[in-house]
Amino acid sequence: MARRVETGMRVALPVDYAGVSMAMTMPLIENGAGQLHLVCVPTGGLQVDMLIGAGLVRTIETSAVSLGEAGGAPRFNRAVLDGTVEIIDATCPAIHAGLLAAQKGNPFMPIRGLIGTDVLANREDWRVIDNPFAESGDPIVLVPAIHPDVAIFHAPKADRFGNVWIGRRRELAAMAYASRITLVTVERIVEESLLATEESAAGTLPALYVSDIAVAPRGALPYGLWGEYPTDTAELARYARAARNAEGFADYMRGAALEAAQ
Q1: For the chain, what percentages of helix, strand and coil (3-state, to nearest 5) are there?
Q2: Residue 188: strand, helix, or coil
Q3: With contact defined as beta carbons under 8 Å apart, do 189 and 157 qualify?
Q4: Buried b (16+ CB within 10 A) or exposed e, 165-201
Q5: Beta partners for 184?
Q6: CB neighbours of residue 112 within 10 Å
Q7: Residues forming a β-bridge with 230
Q8: Which CATH number is 2-90+147-219+227-261's, of 3.40.1080.10, 3.40.50.620, 3.30.413.10, 3.30.365.10?
């Protein structure tokens, strides 16, 4: 699946609690497609930091990048200081609004919460207009649609028909709706259709929006996956310590590559 990610693509990746496909990280690095534009939905973490450390990222659109309780994302922080990646400032609502606009086929989505913030000064592509339905001045921000080339995430299960169960993680659906292709790793494949009952169908992403699926047990680790396993906070902390410099990052990634090959 990693071969479907090509140089220069816009790649949507989920927040750490929503099903990060860490299983795809090493294949993406081995595939070597660089100059990527990452869209964090709405923040980034370990996977983003690793892709930056591997030199694959040109720009990143996000409201934050961190390792949570393990602290800052070291390769992201270094790249910002060195100027080797371009940061496109955003907010969580703005990213969701941009994806929603793409999902609905609209060129933009109006949102109000950005009025009065400093973020507007860093986004020339956002427009402030007067609400055309108001009798007097009523500013509102227009956020352009975000059209990822590919969305990548991990989920607990898919069925043999290609439907993927995402539960209440609607940001995963938003990513898939807005993206040209969607690549999903899952813990397992089930025989029965996830759309067969009201109970399961409500949390299922239909196969229409899924391009490829691969089975990758425990594929979100060291992040947790809802209903399956918790986050390995000790491993996140180990990475944070190792990746403070380029040599430590390289050593850590060599170990990760060997582990993945076993």
Answers
A1: 35, 25, 40
A2: strand
A3: yes
A4: bbbebebbbbbbbbbebbbbbbbeebeeebbeeeebe
A5: 153, 213
A6: 11
A7: none
A8: 3.40.1080.10
The arithmetic mean of pLDDT across residues 185-203, rounded, is 96
Q: Tell me which residue has tokens 């070291």.
A: 74
Residues 44, 42: Cα–Cα separation, whole Å:
7
**Alpha carbon distance 216, 154 (integer Å):** 9
pLDDT tens digits, residue range 32-66?
A: 999 999 999 999 999 999 999 999 999 999 999 99
* DSSP annotation of 229: B
The H or E element spanning position 25 is helix 25-31
* Domain ranges, ordered by start, for the chain: 2-90+147-219+227-261
pLDDT tens profile 207-262:
999 999 999 999 999 999 999 999 999 999 999 999 999 999 999 999 988 877 66
What distance in Å separates the CA atoms of residue 70 and residue 56, rounded to the nearest whole number? 23
- CB of 54 within 8 A of CB of 253? yes
E strands present in the chain: 10-14, 36-41, 57-62, 86-89, 108-111, 127-130, 139-144, 150-159, 164-165, 181-190, 204-205, 212-215
In angstroms, rounded to a whole number, what is the distance separating the alpha carbons of residues 133 and 171? Answer: 30
Contact yes or no for 185/24 (Cβ under 8 A): yes
Q: How far apart are CA 139 and CA 162, in angstroms?
A: 44
